[in-house]
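Dear colleagues,

As part of the handover before I leave the project, I'm documenting each prediction I ran so the next person doesn't have to rerun anything. This entry is a single chain, and its sequence is reproduced below.
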Amino acid sequence: MGDANNCGQFKNCADGRGFIFDCPEGLAFNEETYRCDWPDQVKSCDAEAYLGFSCPPAAKGIFGQEEYRSFRSPNDCQRYFVCVDHRPRLNNCGEGRAFNEITNECDGAENVTGCAGPSQYQKVEPTQLNYDQRSNYKFRG
């Protein structure tokens, strides 16, 4: 719907009214197939600009083909990019998981260096009432 840098939206008309829709995260609208697709598969989309990531130069594999490589997102441990033919594709590990560059797969966030965020549970220290405070409380029996 717009420019090559923002290709994740499209318009659809119903009853004479236009509606704007978003493709799922990391996908772009393909005007040729009328579906959401990998941005590198959409001719009118600049995948690098749209996703905000450029694949580093790749070494050739043993058969002369470029290998698929994965890179953790610099902005979010939960997301990572797979480089296919030197073009990025955004993937998501899911809640509580992070991309582990050592094992090259999604893992528990606590197992990935720099990705274990603050605990969702707040530590509460017990408090002790002194004698004067306890005397103000009466028990009903």
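The chain has a mean pLDDT of 81. The chain has two helices and nine strands.

All the best with the project,
I.
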